[in-house]
Write a structure and sequence with these properties.
By secondary structure, the protein is mostly helical. The protein has helices at about 10, 20-50, 55-70, 75-80, 80-100, 105-135, 140-165, 170-190, 205-225, 230-250, 270-285, 290-295, 300-310, 310-320, 330-350, 355-385, 400-430, 435-455, 455-460. α15 packs antiparallel against α18. The longest helix has about 30 residues, at about 20-50. The radius of gyration is 21 Å and the shape is globular. The N and C termini lie close together (about 5 Å). It is a multi-pass membrane protein. It is found in: Cell membrane.
Length: about 475
């Protein structure tokens, strides 16, 4: 890998790749836009169909289904051609969005979100898998950056679309737009992915791993929703036990979600996944920034919303710049340190400052932290995609490589669940005092970022020194 030249953006859209790249970008954009559009229209939806007591559940059930579905991505791709698998994922996602669009009540909306999450999890999982299947290794880092760019587009399109339609009393059409967009993307899938197929057999169904992953995600979701500190803490501890059980089960089973190389002595893949989880988990703080901005800094909802996407904007900018880097190992070492410095700056700002000065420090810290994530992420993702190759005998194991690619999304979604639950527990430590809750929140994520930065060096061993 060290001597391979990095591909250019022009090569990403060269003849023969344009269709696959368009599908990769479009499917990722559907999943990302849904994440932001739902958050912006939920108040209007709840006002019309009721179910205020279950306000957080549409996001929770979506994420739960997405975690489970993403863990099955490699098996789905092994069973059917990539084009057919992608059409199934788009179809399930669109079906869920259609249920959401016509939902007369909160229970029906939750069913739609569950279905949509299953399709969305497959779409997200197949994003990284398609990078490996359809692009040469020299373009894997660019492909990872493209996925990040779609999240950047979603930062603008999602809240804007949801807010605009909700304000006009037409929130249902936001889900309708996702249905139409899914159909448009689906129309080009047959020609774009007609040659794409994972060259492997399905293998045994990873029932034990899927059950443990699903249970951990479910418990984390409940912990994140719990208003009681004891319940949230117990839930977080139970989830940790389930995740440890998942790792122990993966080490000894042939029906695994993670590639065998994750547990091979001396392999850096476990550290790559671990650092990826830390980066994504710490980014979960952005979900709580608008709340802290309004309650502690006195920001208007719009201003607090923009502050909430500061970390995401930094992430996208960092990825687009870092994707062209010639020294990826250095980027993987520096990125987590920048994330730690940014989160510490925010935590200090909450304690030491107030007013506009505090908001300015928060913004700088969040953008810097996000830039740190983006600096490391494309190289971690590209290294994880190829982390299972080759086997000790020197032969390429396509099944293990497919698992390595799909596991990036599974790890990412589990990390989001952990970060959300950790944020909920941190807020509960404030015992109803907004300032105390904000201090606990940012301090907790700062400590996690600092400790996570310690995994950068072993993770970097799986990243090439130069490209």
């Amino acid at each position: 890998m060290g001597g391979e030249q990095a591909g250019s953006w022009a090569q990403m859209v060269a003849p023969g790749r344009r269709g696959a790249v368009t599908v990769l970008a479009g499917g990722t954009l559907m999943f990302a836009v849904d994440t932001y559009v739902t958050a912006s229209l939920l108040p209007s939806a709840v006002a019309e169909i009721g179910g205020a007591a279950f306000y957080a559940w549409p996001t929770t059930v979506f994420l739960l289904a997405a975690v489970v579905a993403s863990s099955l991505t490699s098996r789905v791709l092994a069973a059917v051609p990539a084009g057919r698998a992608y059409l199934v994922a788009l179809g399930v996602f669109a079906a869920g969005a259609l249920i959401d669009a016509v939902a007369p009540s909160m229970p029906v909306l939750l069913v739609g979100r569950l279905v949509q999450g299953a399709g969305g999890g497959l779409l997200a999982g197949m994003g990284y898998a398609l990078i490996r299947i359809t692009l040469p290794r020299s373009l894997w880092t660019r492909g990872s950056a493209l996925i990040a760019a779609m999240w950047g587009v979603a930062l603008v399109v999602g809240p804007g679309l949801g807010g605009l339609l909700a304000g006009a009393g037409q929130w249902r059409w936001a889900f309708g737009a996702l249905v139409v967009a899914s159909l448009l993307i689906g129309a080009i899938v047959p020609s774009a992915l007609h040659r794409a197929r994972a060259r492997t057999s399905p293998g045994p169904f990873p029932l034990g791993s899927v059950l443990l992953v699903g249970a951990a995600a479910a418990v984390l979701s409940v912990a994140g929703l719990a208003a009681d500190l004891l319940v949230a803490g117990v839930g977080l501890a139970a989830a940790a036990v389930l995740l440890v059980g998942f790792v122990a089960h993966e080490r000894r089973t042939a029906a695994a979600v993670l590639p065998r190389a994750t547990f091979r002595p001396g392999s850096p893949l476990r550290w790559i996944y671990g650092l990826s989880a830390v980066l994504v988990g710490v980014s979960g703080v952005e979900a709580f920034v608008p709340l802290a901005g309004q309650q502690v800094a006195g920001l208007a909802p719009v201003a607090a919303g923009f502050l909430g996407v500061a970390l995401g904007a930094g992430w996208v900018a960092g990825e687009m710049i870092s994707a062209s880097a010639r020294r990826p190992r250095w980027r993987v070492l520096a990125g987590p340190g920048l994330l730690a410095a940014g989160t510490v700056l925010v935590a200090v700002g909450v304690v030491a400052l107030d007013g506009s000065g505090a908001v300015a420090v928060w913004a700088v810290g969040l953008v810097a932290g996000g830039f740190g994530i983006g600096t490391a992420w494309p190289h971690l993702a590209a290294s994880a995609i190829g982390g299972a190759e080759p086997d000790p005998d020197g032969e390429q194991d396509e099944g293990e490589a497919d698992k390595a690619s799909a596991a990036v999304t599974t790890v990412q979604m589990l990390a989001v669940s952990v970060g959300t639950a950790l944020g909920g527990v941190s807020l509960a430590l404030g015992d109803g005092d907004p300032l105390a809750s904000a201090r606990w929140l940012f301090a907790t994520f700062a400590v996690a970022a600092v400790l996570g930065a310690l995994t950068a060096r072993p993770a970097s061993r799986g990243v090439p020194v130069e490209i």
